[in-house]
Amino acid sequence: MMNKQFLFFLVLILLTATNTFSQKRMLQNEYTNLNGIDNDSIISGRTKIELSGKTKYTDYKIFSHKGVTTYIDTTLSIKKEYKFNYLRKDNFELLEFHNQGQTFNNLGYSFNNLKQFPDIGFTAKQFSYFEIEDIKYYEVPTPTTEILYRTGLQQGQVVDALFTLNFSKRLNVSASYKGLRSLGAYRQSLASNGNFRGTFHYTTKENQYEIRGHFTSQDFFNEESGGLTTSSLENFISDDPDYTTRARLDVNLDDAENQFDSNRTYLEHSYKLISSKDSINNKDFSNLKIGHIFTNESKSYNFTQGTETTDIFGEINATEATDKNATSKITNNEINLEFNSKYVLGKFKAKANYTSYSYGYDSILNSNSTIDKLKLKGSAISVGADWNAKIKKFQLNADASLTPGSGRLSGNYLKGEALYKNDSLFTVKGSLLISSKSPNFNTLLHQSNYDDYNWENDFSNVNTRDLGFTFNSKWINATLNFTNIDNYTYFDENNTPQQFENQITYLKVKANREFKFWKLALDNTLMYQNVSSGSSVFRVPEFVTRNTFYYTDYWFKGKPMLVNMGVTFKYFTKYNENAYNPLLAEFTIQNNEEIGYPTFDVFFNAQVRRTRLYLKVDNITSSFSDKNYFSAPNYPYRDFTVRFGLVWNWFI
Q1: Which residues contact 115 (CB under 8 A, 6 or more apart)?
Q2: Most buried pick, 20, 192, 313, 649, via CB within 10 A?
Q3: Which regions of 368-492 does DSSP assign to beta strands (E)?
Q4: 3-state DSSP assignment of residue 187
Q5: Burial class (CB in 10 A: 0-12, 13-18, 19+), 521
Q6: Residue-wise pLDDT tens digits, 255-283
């Protein structure tokens, strides 16, 4: 399936490239003076894209799922350095495994953006998964392309390609594909992943009818090693010179792999029944819309092991440990009615959803198990409302939903935000999230050829309450989150799912401050965490810090190149870091090993026009420091590694 999607993506680029001239003629009807755009008219180092004629950088728009508008950014900054990785996100609160495309351990947790319904689980495979909220839509005056390239570990690379164009100002399409293949330094650490995203967005001339949608096809394949064997672990820690080539170290699994696949179709459209007086500020009854949202998402996971089975998973009831796919499918239809009114101080949307789900297996995999249910199935009706209001300098947002009944989808969801912005000086936001939903499906039902990995549970809903505060200014950026969780669901030391009988009480405080002098800067991020109740099952380091000292300046006559280079120090205090289980694709608690260590990374980045070049050396002190750096017990973090990459934009 992924090969077909990638072929479609290449064909689309080829077809649109051959029709670029005709598209420009079409766009002339909507945009003014675009033929004068020069491919080299984006000036290096400026904070804006400058194009000739009347086209501005603000014409190249990006729309988030929630409708927040940003712009295509070709600048170079320290934040771009933090995001130049496989996830393309700042992974400050994550600890990556040695090979890109593998999973991540958590150094911190966020509970302020939970889903309404449970998921299939197998969470270690979903760090690079594109959720509905991660999909972006575009509006561009000319065909636009962005390419990210980054070298892999030992062999391989990452490529993330985007192509988008407007056939008219009202119709945009885009196609994106992120592909990764990286061999890794240790045995059985190959990663091969793919994320295809195709989007479209269309509005009628008077914006009376609007439709947008996307299709995703994603697959994540990993060879699994099970970590180093006991003897290899000793050789690594003692820095035995015979094993500096990491492929010589033995691993627990020689022929194991797991695969996670998903397809999703999303369609959202609305029709204005009353379209006069569009402005919310008028506060009259206006903009009455009826809308419909359709979502169909399927996911599957399987773990495969050849004839060379191992005792690290216990007794097996088969000659080969090939677990059949665990599959899930969720289909949702939402009908909503939206309007602006002075009686609600802004915009109000009432909504009703019908959701059906199915999760499970096609047959019993292990005759020794006592499981008598192959699938979990059900459906539910939800009702709720969204509210958005602006009162002077205050912005208020609320999203509420209730799913009555006693099924697996029953529960409630409430998220509220209050934001105050004092011009450009500072912004303060308070948020509250209350959620009650079932644990992930793989904690309720799981099958395996290994005897100890079969269960059927009837867990209670997980109840989460998160109170958050955010303060952003030119002096400091800070966040505080206080979280309570009842019926917290986790995997214990025996790799079985459990619910914590007491309450989890979790405090997280994070602050960022940058100091600048001349052409030098020091960017500091510090996170403090405290688990006052439930620390026996909910583990996080007390402190995590990242400090980057860097230099920025233009080089050469005429300032053709902006250079950004420096060193990043990251450290987290010791704690009982969660262990990784490749059969479950989940992290489990462990009490045998405390992990915490510093790393130093050196980088040299440059911007030439619309191209950003990245050169990075990871863990530069590993050759002479103690071999105590692990991503999880038995899984060493990467050694001294040099990698190169770039991000390149074309505006045709």
Answers
A1: 437
A2: 313
A3: 375-391, 394-403, 411-422, 426-437, 445-446, 455-456, 462-473, 477-486, 489-491
A4: coil
A5: middle
A6: 999 999 999 999 999 999 986 554 444 44
